[in-house]
Design brief:
By secondary structure, the protein is α+β, with helices and mostly antiparallel strands. It is built from twelve helices and 21 strands.
Amino acid sequence: MEPAVHQIWKRGFHSLHRSFILHKRNHSGQAEHADISHSRHVKPALLVSRLYQPSNLRDVGQESRLPGEMTCKSQRLMQQAGLIHPSNPGCYYYLPAAVRSMEKLVRVIDQEMQGIGGQKLDMPSLCSADLWKTSERWDLMGKELFRLKDRHGSDYCLGPTHEEAITTLVAHQTTLSYRQLPLLLYQITRKFRDEPKPRFGLLRGREFYMKDMYSFDVSEEAAHETYESVCQAYARLFTRLGLRCVQVQADTGNIGGTLSHEFQLPADIGEDRLLVCRTCSFSANMETLSPDRTDCPQCSTGTLVESKGIEVGHTFYLGKKYSHIFSASFSNHQNKPTVAEMGCYGLGVTRILAAAIEVMSTEEGIRWPGLIAPYQVCVLPPKKGSKVDEAAALAEELVHNLGQFLPHLRGEVVFDDRTQMTIGKRLKDAGRLGYPYVIVVGHTALEEMPKFEVICQQSGETMLLSKDGLLDLLGTVETV
């Protein structure tokens, strides 16, 4: 039996479409005139001409690059598409389309972190120097730490990470019980790092968005179980985004601890050098191994091959490094205070956004992970004054119907109302901006059996679909 939504779609769409057919026949002398203005006519809410996305799409090609101006593909595409705009070295304005994408990414991260028991909070970016001096990282961090004094002469820093702050917070809860553990607390906020040479756009900046989560466990064994659950959540996250991510052994650096892994997206532009075994699952950052080593330390038979990667996530098992210093303890089974075992887990939110564009896009246009594209669908009506100009109202009605009959696409369909431009030029723009689905409403939409040209940007496939086929296709689109 035909789904109810298809029946409703057919009734509403057939009414408008019949008006066009009668209108066409009137001009050929075959039927009486039907006034199409009597059909229900709703203007699309999201018009391309009204979106604040100052772009320079005419100059997207490689030949337009100025030496030293934009240092990687993602930076060039994001600036030219009006996603970001440079403010000062290492800092950017995030424009509306980028914010939409980032908010979707945050929702996916929230789903995965809360799926393993994470609880979201928000900590101050302005951190007291006293905390950092207590952990002895005030001097260890060196020039990477943004430092400042208030009017009273007290020292502060802009937090690049929050181990000291979160451990102090938990330490203040003197009634914490083993029954409440594991405790996983996370935030998604702006971070600051005084990079000596910010470059590659959002891949290496001085101000960026990051998800940092901190875990507190009853024992080392339990802490390792939590560590593994977070790594698995990261793997699910990147799978959902359609990104091939490699988990590699890594150095603990100035965070500390005894175990660490990075999550790397393989890319030629990557600054990290990786060694990956061709035989088994072993992979590591070259920092952890001798640079001239070629044999695999895990399987002994495989050969290590060097590649490059963009670090998009990092996990650390901290043990009692911070919990001991700040006295973050809980009451154990015997009701005695016990120092908690800790872990910390980072995801570079803005870096994931830029890295995804870096590895998925062509030189000519952005390709998004479908789940986090700013908008899922772009509808192109015919050029004003063209032979099929009368299909423009049909295109507007299509936008309305998609939002009405596919609720998950509400707010996800934009209408390119720049009808002074040819379909060809607007198609190029849509390709460069990377809408996952582009629908062209042209002469085939006015036929007895209307069809729509649908371009799937991810696969490069072009289809000619009936209204029901279009509904079926877009009904499978996943949104967050």
